[in-house]
């Protein structure tokens, strides 16, 4: 689905390939170190972030997880619902209107929620089947669409025309949002990796996994270019899935429907399960995992209905994806720099102080908040949002300063790294947060006595 956005933005096929590859690889390089936290601490990355933001400041990671879950659960419901209606229209002539689309969205949302509610093992089994099935269906797609494919598809925006770079950067950011979206809940999976596993092996595994997503990305890009030529009305309506169903050969029609449903099921369950689990740990007295998952699922369903029937859904999802990248990337940079400065030393037990309703421990800092991490993340995220430039969708107050080019990502990444390192230098963290080897910097840690964890 995300692979179709360069075509929807007006780019050529070749420019779309460059935007997707750049976005995925940049996102994978940023994401890779986030796979280390789960193996080191045996918990998700939102909880691990308490080491750098404070045990209360970990809610920043939980908030980012929530945004991610809503965006990508909504995307999965949208694409799969459109596939179900499009398939029924071609098979039995079912009309495509607000009622049928609404029923399809509701049906698929309930299916994803059911998988998540049954628990981790069932979800893992579903995802294993989804990966194998989707791979086989992608291979079948090569002979199905290769005949009419034209790698020279020009699009409506060419290099040198006004708006080209804005569309290119926007498409790259949408592609980058996929790997970055895993940053907050990658620990839900990597926490099962043995602590003694070589770190390089984990880093390479994460990069390889994200590089593999280029297959569905490029499949979406290639088929979207075909839809733009054979059924341009669907592209004008931002209905890539419907267009794909319309141009698919008869023998490949059912595989296309299955591919959309399987892909949406895998994406939706991955986004929703970990976030529900994390939210239940933030509010353990109010929400169980099941209730938290239901709450997030209902919020996402509301988003998908409002976005589909009240606003332009492509604008809603692409804007939301860019905002996720803008806010999550500086948070990840702070986590990664903190990992390096502390030489990978963490105390997993003290990370659970907030969940247990206690206070104190190595990561208590200032009443549970570490203003070094927060002081770097908040202005960096705001600066990035101010420079977002997606024409016709979202333009920040400073978004036009670069002539329409979106500078949100480099500015938010650079400012987060600079601010965090400066704050660590000016206000050294307590010595207790560092291991026996001490900090990876010349400044001596602050000699602050450790407050043992105790009941609140």
From TrEMBL:
<keyword id="KW-0812">Transmembrane</keyword>
<comment type="similarity">
    <text>Belongs to the purine-cytosine permease (2.A.39) family.</text>
</comment>
<feature type="transmembrane region" description="Helical">
    <location>
        <begin position="251"/>
        <end position="273"/>
    </location>
</feature>
<keyword id="KW-1133">Transmembrane helix</keyword>
<feature type="transmembrane region" description="Helical">
    <location>
        <begin position="98"/>
        <end position="120"/>
    </location>
</feature>
<keyword id="KW-0813">Transport</keyword>
<feature type="transmembrane region" description="Helical">
    <location>
        <begin position="59"/>
        <end position="78"/>
    </location>
</feature>
<feature type="transmembrane region" description="Helical">
    <location>
        <begin position="12"/>
        <end position="38"/>
    </location>
</feature>
<protein>
    <submittedName>
        <fullName>Purine-cytosine permease-like protein</fullName>
    </submittedName>
</protein>
<feature type="transmembrane region" description="Helical">
    <location>
        <begin position="408"/>
        <end position="427"/>
    </location>
</feature>
<dbReference type="InterPro" id="IPR026030">
    <property type="entry name" value="Pur-cyt_permease_Fcy2/21/22"/>
</dbReference>
<feature type="transmembrane region" description="Helical">
    <location>
        <begin position="129"/>
        <end position="149"/>
    </location>
</feature>
<dbReference type="GO" id="GO:0005886">
    <property type="term" value="C:plasma membrane"/>
</dbReference>
<feature type="transmembrane region" description="Helical">
    <location>
        <begin position="202"/>
        <end position="231"/>
    </location>
</feature>
<feature type="transmembrane region" description="Helical">
    <location>
        <begin position="369"/>
        <end position="388"/>
    </location>
</feature>
<dbReference type="GO" id="GO:0022857">
    <property type="term" value="F:transmembrane transporter activity"/>
</dbReference>
<dbReference type="InterPro" id="IPR001248">
    <property type="entry name" value="Pur-cyt_permease"/>
</dbReference>
<feature type="transmembrane region" description="Helical">
    <location>
        <begin position="320"/>
        <end position="341"/>
    </location>
</feature>
<dbReference type="Pfam" id="PF02133">
    <property type="entry name" value="Transp_cyt_pur"/>
</dbReference>
<feature type="region of interest" description="Disordered">
    <location>
        <begin position="436"/>
        <end position="456"/>
    </location>
</feature>
<keyword id="KW-0472">Membrane</keyword>
<feature type="transmembrane region" description="Helical">
    <location>
        <begin position="164"/>
        <end position="190"/>
    </location>
</feature>
<feature type="transmembrane region" description="Helical">
    <location>
        <begin position="294"/>
        <end position="314"/>
    </location>
</feature>
């Amino acid at each position: 689905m995300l692979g179709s956005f360069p075509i929807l933005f007006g780019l050529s096929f070749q420019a779309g390939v460059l935007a997707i590859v750049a976005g995925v690889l940049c996102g994978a390089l940023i994401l890779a170190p986030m796979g280390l936290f789960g193996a080191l601490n045996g918990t998700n990355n939102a909880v691990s972030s308490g080491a750098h933001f404070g045990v209360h400041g970990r809610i920043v990671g939980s908030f980012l997880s929530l945004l991610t879950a809503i965006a990508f659960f909504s995307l999965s419901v949208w694409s799969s619902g459109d596939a179900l209606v499009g398939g029924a229209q071609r098979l039995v002539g079912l009309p495509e209107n607000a009622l049928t689309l609404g029923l399809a969205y509701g049906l698929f949302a309930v299916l994803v929620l059911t998988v998540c509610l049954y628990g981790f093992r069932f979800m893992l089994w579903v995802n294993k089947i989804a990966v194998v099935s989707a791979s086989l269906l992608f291979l079948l797609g090569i002979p199905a669409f290769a005949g009419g494919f034209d790698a020279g598809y020009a699009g409506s925006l060419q290099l040198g025309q006004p708006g080209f770079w804005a569309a290119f950067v926007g498409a790259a950011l949408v592609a980058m949002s996929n790997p970055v979206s895993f940053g907050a809940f990658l620990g839900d999976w990597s926490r099962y990796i043995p602590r003694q596993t070589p770190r390089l092996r984990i880093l390479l595994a994460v990069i390889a996994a994200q590089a593999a997503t280029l297959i569905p990305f490029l499949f979406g890009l290639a088929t979207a270019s075909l839809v733009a030529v054979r059924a341009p009305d669907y592209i004008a309506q931002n209905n890539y899935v419907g267009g794909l169903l319309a141009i698919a050969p008869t023998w490949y029609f059912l595989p296309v429907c299955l591919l959309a449903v399987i892909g949406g099921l895998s994406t939706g369950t991955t986004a929703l399960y970990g976030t529900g689990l994390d939210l239940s740990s933030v509010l353990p007295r109010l929400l169980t995992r099941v209730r938290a998952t239901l709450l997030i699922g209902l919020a996402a369903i509301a988003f998908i209905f409002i976005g589909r029937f009240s606003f332009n859904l492509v604008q809603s999802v692409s804007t939301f994806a860019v905002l996720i990248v803008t806010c999550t990337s500086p948070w990840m940079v702070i986590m990664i720099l903190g990992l390096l400065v502390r030489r990978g030393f963490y105390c997993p037990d003290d990370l659970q102080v907030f969940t247990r309703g206690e206070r104190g421990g190595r990561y208590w800092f200032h009443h549970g908040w570490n203003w070094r991490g927060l002081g770097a993340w908040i202005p960096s995220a705001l600066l990035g949002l101010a420079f977002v430039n997606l024409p016709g969708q979202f333009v920040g107050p400073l978004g036009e300063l670069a002539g329409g080019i979106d500078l949100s990502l480099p500015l938010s990444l650079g400012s987060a790294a600079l601010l965090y390192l400066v704050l660590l230098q000016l206000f050294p963290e307590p010595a207790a947060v560092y291991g026996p080897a001490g900090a990876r910097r010349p400044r001596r840690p602050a000699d602050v006595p450790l407050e043992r964890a105790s009941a609140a």
